[in-house]
From TrEMBL:
<dbReference type="InterPro" id="IPR055414">
    <property type="entry name" value="LRR_R13L4/SHOC2-like"/>
</dbReference>
<dbReference type="Pfam" id="PF00931">
    <property type="entry name" value="NB-ARC"/>
</dbReference>
<feature type="domain" description="Disease resistance R13L4/SHOC-2-like LRR">
    <location>
        <begin position="417"/>
        <end position="620"/>
    </location>
</feature>
<dbReference type="InterPro" id="IPR042197">
    <property type="entry name" value="Apaf_helical"/>
</dbReference>
<keyword id="KW-0547">Nucleotide-binding</keyword>
<keyword id="KW-0175">Coiled coil</keyword>
<dbReference type="InterPro" id="IPR032675">
    <property type="entry name" value="LRR_dom_sf"/>
</dbReference>
<keyword id="KW-0611">Plant defense</keyword>
<keyword id="KW-0677">Repeat</keyword>
<dbReference type="GO" id="GO:0005524">
    <property type="term" value="F:ATP binding"/>
</dbReference>
<dbReference type="InterPro" id="IPR002182">
    <property type="entry name" value="NB-ARC"/>
</dbReference>
<dbReference type="InterPro" id="IPR058922">
    <property type="entry name" value="WHD_DRP"/>
</dbReference>
<feature type="domain" description="Disease resistance protein winged helix">
    <location>
        <begin position="290"/>
        <end position="361"/>
    </location>
</feature>
<dbReference type="InterPro" id="IPR027417">
    <property type="entry name" value="P-loop_NTPase"/>
</dbReference>
<keyword id="KW-0067">ATP-binding</keyword>
<dbReference type="GO" id="GO:0043531">
    <property type="term" value="F:ADP binding"/>
</dbReference>
<dbReference type="Pfam" id="PF23559">
    <property type="entry name" value="WHD_DRP"/>
</dbReference>
Length: 759
């Protein structure tokens, strides 16, 4: 996800950081916008010229016509970025929460999250934060004017040429929200533009072969000028892109929909895409309807849910279920029905989402086939009680309680046929009544209520759910009853405040693959005695107070771990050697220490480790061990100590594969490193290193370096050194390949906001 880079004061950030883009977490895609130059000139003029007063620019077009894509290109355009002091992007959608919209805009404008729940106060704080600034707000996908009425008073007009862009499918909405500028109706693509986009999506960086030019033109004509239809058709064709007969087959299939209205045509094309998916991918795609519209879904969560639902087939190749599911996701992305919204440092998919037309198709198809039901306010009074499907999701906080209450009043079972129950948005405290009813759902396999907060929760509450494979909850106190365990559980996520005490019965959940806690502590006696193993466990997160001298127990109890987040209890030793080399599958390791700055005399880690986070140790003696890890691509050093001096001198040490280096709260003032120390480095992040004076100028000679990110308080000389590196590369290479990002910490953003409110 791109970080938010939002200076609260237009004069706060020194040049050249002053005009850096406020990076919103828009889709991380290489979307082709054919003909954008022709549309952009007029739209940019609307945003930077014209009246000094606040203006609203509506962009009107039907679903799949490219409103959001055009707005996104404008939002990130260098001319626009340099014009406005602050920017924010907010998705409205058909169902929305005014409070959540205000919080989202406020967070992007100030760089700080406001926990205020009272809507009126939130609206007033947002208005105050925008006073005195030239701002750009994008309100994407507005369905009616009620949303505009809920937000408009928070957008002050102080004569600074601030602008609001509204994208909508409805011309009437565009007319009603406009101020000075008439709605811009997005034109359809010409046949030539459609053909150009189609060929780019099918052949990527290759040229379309001459023998397919004519048929590609013919297919493009059938796409009715809708970019989404072109993209969906490209996803179908590229599976057999070199076969002219396949192009013709798709073209003739499109003939069946020629008489459809354009809105229906997008859905009809989506049906064609769906029909051409392998059978194993169809339920995976429909499952996207279980999430709210425009939701950015973590890939790891989606994969765990697919596995729990039984969508992922066992293979004879020996691949793990997670690897097989990741292949499913990549196939859906390749078919252009799922969009990448966030990538990791290594290019892997971290979050994904679907276009709202695709989401609508999943909802309708899911209801039609009794596959799933997404409960929204309008369905609570009627459809759920008579619905016989196996999956239900709820979009807002009140709906599950209303749903349960309605069922209780009618004295009907609380959907005992349900297999999956998910709450998708928000955080709200509830009582125990829904959980009591949920325990009656004896066939339930998936239960995700992590958006709900309860004060107390017992694992025994879910003991009747003997088929449960996926459980995600949020609680102030979670009690892991001794003797209680879930025999078929594969994913257990407990977002909790105090520690969860893990008794020996935790080790009896033999099918467990993914365990993630807010904080968890093992019962030492149960951990060190007996022979129970969690051989299927791949991910174990947030284990606290683990004895340093018993690290070997981890490899005995959980031998196939791939990810481990652990804090060691260091009170029993002044120094130690961290030995985890027997965890031969380990790829991601986060280690911290309860007693900070303990001396690590050595590291014995598995050779395939590619991500390492170390916090709270004397680091100098183990740097050679870390650099020697042959697969290490990501290294974060946080609050580590260099005891000999305030200087980190790498000398001839080389991190051969490292792509991302993150330094957090280091006390060093000087850093000596050559370009040979990090030959493949792509991203450097420096966070809250208040004493560090500069980045070594030798970083300008690292050919792979793409980004330098500075977060929190730092010396002006550090910022100047980043600028010098950027300028030197530009002078030598003639290209501007270094992206500089400056961010405020939450505390700094809040502090600046508090000062603003004082005036």
């Amino acid at each position: 996800m791109w970080s938010t880079d939002i200076p609260l004061n237009p004069h706060y950030v020194a040049a050249p950081f002053k005009h850096l883009p406020a990076r919103h977490s828009n889709l991380v895609t290489d979307e082709e916008v054919v003909g954008f130059e022709n549309k952009a000139e007029k739209l940019i003029a609307y945003l930077i010229r014209g009246t000094n007063e606040l203006d609203v620019i509506p962009i009107v077009g039907m679903g799949g016509q490219g409103k959001t894509t055009i707005a996104r290109k404008l939002y990130n355009n260098d001319i626009i970025v340099s014009r406005f002091d602050v920017r924010a992007w907010c998705i409205i959608s058909q169902t929305y929460s005014r409070r959540e919209l205000l919080k989202e805009i406020f967070s992007q404008v100030t760089g700080s999250k406001d926990k205020e729940d009272e809507v009126g106060k939130l609206a007033d704080r947002l208005r105050k934060s925008l006073m005195g600034k030239r701002y750009l707000i994008v309100l994407d996908d507005m369905w009616d004017c009620m949303a505009w009425d809920d937000l408009r008073l928070s957008f002050p007009d102080v004569g600074m040429r601030s602008r609001i862009v509204v994208t909508t499918r409805l011309e009437e909405v565009g007319k009603q929200v406009k101020y000075h500028t008439d709605p811009y109706s997005l034109p359809f693509l010409t046949t030539e533009e459609s053909c150009q986009l189609l060929q780019k999506k099918v052949f990527q960086k290759e040229d379309c072969p001459p023998e397919l030019q004519y048929v590609s033109q013919a297919v493009a004509e059938k796409c009715k000028g809708l970019p989404l239809v072109v993209v969906l058709v490209a996803g179908i064709i590229k599976k057999r892109k070199m076969e002219e007969s396949w192009w013709n087959e798709v073209k003739y299939a499109l003939f069946d929909y020629l008489d459809s209205e354009c809105e229906e045509y997008s859905l009809a094309t989506m049906q064609l895409s769906f029909d051409n998916l392998p059978d194993c991918l169809k339920p995976c795609l429909l499952y996207m309807g279980m999430f709210s519209e425009d939701a950015r879904i973590p890939a790891s969560k989606l994969i765990s849910l697919w596995i729990a639902e039984g969508f992922v087939e066992n293979t004879e190749s020996g691949r793990l279920m997670e690897e097989e599911a990741e292949g499913y996701l990549m196939d859906l992305i390749s078919s252009n029905v799922v969009i990448v919204s966030k990538k990791g440092y290594n290019g892997k998919i971290k979050c994904c989402q679907v276009h709202d037309v695709v989401h609508h198709f999943c909802l309708e198809k899911g209801r039609e086939e009794k596959f799933m039901l997404a409960v929204k306010g309008q369905y609570i009074q009627s459809q759920p009680l008579d619905w016989k499907g196996s999956r239900v999701s709820f979009s807002f906080s009140e709906e599950l309680s209303k749903f349960a209450s309605l069922v209780s009043k009618t004295q009907k079972p609380f959907h005992q046929h349900l297999r999956s129950l998910i709450r998708t948005d928000g955080e709200k405290s509830i009582d125990m009544i829904p959980f009591c009813q949920i325990s009656e759902l004896r066939l339930l396999k998936v239960l995700d209520l992590s958006s709900y907060y309860v004060e107390f929760l017992w694992l025994a509450t879910f003991k009747p759910l003997i088929h449960l494979k996926y459980l995600a909850v949020r609680a102030g106190d979670f009690y892991f009853d001794p003797g209680s365990h879930l025999p078929h559980i594969e994913t257990l996520i407990v977002k909790n405040s105090p520690y969860v005490w893990l008794p020996v019965s935790f080790l009896q959940m033999e099918k467990l693959r993914h365990a993630h806690f807010g904080w968890a502590v093992f019962d030492k006696q149960g951990l060190f005695e007996g022979s129970s193993k969690l051989e299927n466990l791949r991910i174990l997160k947030k284990i606290e107070k683990f004895p340093i001298d018993r690290a070997d127990v981890l490899s005995r109890r959980c031998p196939n771990l791939q990810q481990l987040h652990i804090e060691f209890d260091g009170h029993s030793a002044d120094s130690f050697c961290l030995t985890l080399e027997n965890l031969t599958q380990l790829q991601i390791l986060r280690v911290s220490f309860e007693r900070h700055h303990i001396i690590v005399s050595g590291l014995q880690l598995p050779s395939n480790l590619n991500k390492l986070v170390l916090k709270g140790i004397h680091i100098e003696s183990v740097i050679p061990f870390i650099a020697g890890l042959p697969s290490l691509e990501y290294l974060q050093l946080q609050d580590v100590c260099f005891p000999q001096s305030e200087e980190w001198c790498l000398g001839d040490i080389t991190f051969h594969k490292l792509k991302l280096l993150k330094l957090v709260q280091l006390g060093i003032s000087r850093w000596d490193a050559s370009e040979e120390s990090f030959p493949l480095l792509e991203t450097l992040v420096i966070k809250m290193c208040g004493h560090l004076e500069e980045i070594p100028l030798s970083f300008a000679d690292i050919p792979s370096l793409k980004q330098i990110k500075l977060i929190g308080s730092w010396k002006e000389s550090l910022e100047d050194s980043a600028v010098r590196i950027k300028e030197e590369i530009k002078e030598i290479e003639g290209c501007d390949r270094i992206h500089l990002v400056k961010e405020l910490t939450d505390w700094e953003a809040y502090s600046n906001l508090s000062q603003l409110c004082l005036y």
